[in-house]
Amino acid sequence: MKKALFLGLLAIGLVGISTAQQKKQPAKQPQKQAAKEEVRVTPEEVRQVLLSGFEQDPKFLWKIEQDESQRICSQYPSMEDMPPQAVQKVIELENKNIKYPQWGIYWGDWKEGKKLVESARGGRFASYGFSDRPTDRGGNCYACHLIEKGVPGGTMGPSLAGYGKRYEITKENMNTPESLEKLKTVYKIIYNGWHAFPCSSMPRFGYHGVLSPEEVMNIATYLLHPESPVNK
Amino acid sequence: MNRRKFLLLSAVAVAGLTFAPAIKPAFAASKLEEEIKKRLGVELSAIKETAEIKLTAPTIAESGANVPITVEANIPADKVERLWIFVDKNPIPWVTDVKFTPQNGQVFLSTRIKMGETSNVRAILQLKDGTFVMATKEVKVTAGGCG
Amino acid sequence: MATGTAILRVPKEAQKGQVVRVQMVITHPMTPPRRDPQTGQETPGYFLTKLQLFHNDQLVSEMNMAAGISANPFIALPLKADSSGVIKIAYEDNRGGKWERTAEITVK
Amino acid sequence: MRKILLTSAVFGLACAGFLGYQAVKAQDQELSPEEEIRLVQEFNRMIAEGINPGEIWAEIGKEAFKKYNLDKCDFGLGPGKVEGALAQLPRYFPDAKRVMDLETRIGWCLQQYAGMTPEQVKKFVQQCWGKSQCMGEYDAIVMYVSMASNGQKFNVNLKDPQVKRMYEIGKQIYYARLGPWDFNCATCHAGQKEVRIRATRLWSADRPGEAGQAVSIFPKYLVRWAQPMTMHYRYSECMRQMRWPGFEPHSDLAVALSTFLYGTANGTEIKVPGIGR
């Protein structure tokens, strides 16, 4: 069922992408269009080349089927170049793609969140000698973010050091509706960042099922909880 | 608060201030001290730092598996017995030792060493007259890549 | 390919009395001994223990090492060039492996 | 009296602790991420000095090249001619009816002249993948052939429509967001802002010359695994990290990416092997 939906989306998307490109390019980059005239590449050709490059294992091949937001984002090398309609479209699509834990928004277990933040292994599959297992969970957050003090982290994403302090969450106010609203905001960004930042580099962890809603809740708790080492 | 109490209080406070920083590094270096005592027969505290040894190492290493170090000394090779390299916080702090002769013409070593974590690297020269001099550099070991 | 293969690099020519650099890379895993945290079983390491540098069969330098040196070690040592001839490195590991490499230098 | 001693001792320790904390904090804050990026680059310059252990692979590769009859292999400049081969690849090969990059061509020649089946070639290519301290003949052959072009500049013929087609496809794939982590190549390797992943500085296709610098040092010796990494292994590792499916070496996908990257690198001098973490 899910697969059929994917394929359906794909078909719609492919039509969408080609018309969008034809419409968009003459207006935006007339010179480049002229230079490209001699070599024209269809989306189907690109797809065939992509398919040729992967092991034909049905367990994994679904990974290269794009959804509509991915297809829109692929058209714009830089997010700044995205036209407002495209931005709006992705926001619209992704706002529908957020689910919450069964119990709603609550303070989770920051210790569990910490484990998921630190693990680099989630979502990779076992192949050629590396010891990853399909059951490994994690968000590999340090690759892109600075989080706890003194732990090496990347700078692709913003620094998250003292994140809860920045949101002014304290032991006293953490159960007020305002604080829970802040927790919800962070939950939504981790679950599906594209609902607020379309086509951003951050994976839509919850939407893709890389992390469960409860796991996302634990990570949001780790970032905001006054007792978490992030806020020490 | 009377005057005597105040004086006492401040004296203890000052003692705390001056000793606390000294205690910590000495404690952390004990394994290294043992190793140096065992291999060189001297106390680490007896070895003086000198500007005559130039120890080049990165300030930040992207990988602890391969930290490039270069040692160059202005002390003539015929006065030198041996060059020792130690890494304070490695499980085995001793890394290597090189015997030099006048045929070397100079005291020089360039190699790559392993470092388990952020730590000092020490280059200690054992001189023919039985004394030791050293140069120290801290290398911060971080992690690179996607993980 | 076998462990112990090396590249030894020395300037082909040197002025008399000049200090040249003898550079080398030796292929060796340089693995440290390990103890399995669960079984407590120890696996012995595999590393170079000694490197000697000779100039016309006279010992110039001797280096002792263990697994603290990186895998496939790069080492550079100085040598005062006072006569033409053969520069030789001899090295051995903790499993009885012994190797030699030579290079020639012409002193003007 | 005892109480005073106790309080003063606590006070003293607290002061010392605070000072110690301040010192640590000052040390940590001394370096901004930008300064740290500079210092890591300094580290990379330092490990590039001396002899690159990857050069040992070229020596093995020279023998393996003959052993597998690759002196019959035409890289576009005549059978067995390796000098300058890397500089003009990828190109279109009428005998194979495909655009091929260096590694794909080696794989094709292994089938033609060494009698390997495609499965055997794949096994041969992946011999050292996911390992460390591994001395593979394939890596050695790629190293030997690549080093024969050292000093030359990339000159991919993008006027050839077949090559240009692969270039365009490669470019589109470079920007295609795929998979359960929504990545494309550009997620990490594009943009004007200099960023790092953990401590590793990322090169960007949008900053002039950087794509060239990145590809002109492949195969690259990796100190963390103590073995060289060929370009196709690099693609495979990137895709594994992007959570894409298992990568097929010597596929059209590899060729398309190579054509885009090496085509972008046109004019850059080849300096093989590179060295890095």
3D architecture notes:
The complex is a heterotetramer of chains A (232), B (147), C (108) and D (277). By secondary structure, chain A is mainly α. Chain A has ten helices and no strands. Chain A has two domains: 65 residues, no CATH class; 122 residues, Orthogonal Bundle (Cytochrome Bc1 Complex, Chain D, domain 2), CATH 1.10.760. Chain A is globular and about 65 Å long. Chain B has a single domain, classed as SoxY domain (Immunoglobulin-like). In chain B, strands 1, 3, 5, 6, 8 and 9 form a six-stranded mixed beta sheet that branches. In chain B, strands 2-4-7 form a three-stranded antiparallel beta sheet, with no helix packed on it. The radius of gyration of chain D is 24 Å and the shape is globular. Chain D has 277 residues and is mostly helical. In chain D, a hairpin with a 4-residue loop joins strand 5 and strand 6. Chain D contains eleven helices and seven strands. The N and C termini of chain D lie far apart (60 Å). Chain D has a single domain, classed as Orthogonal Bundle (Cytochrome Bc1 Complex, Chain D, domain 2). The longest helix of chain D has 29 residues. Chains in contact: A-B, A-D, B-C, B-D, C-D.
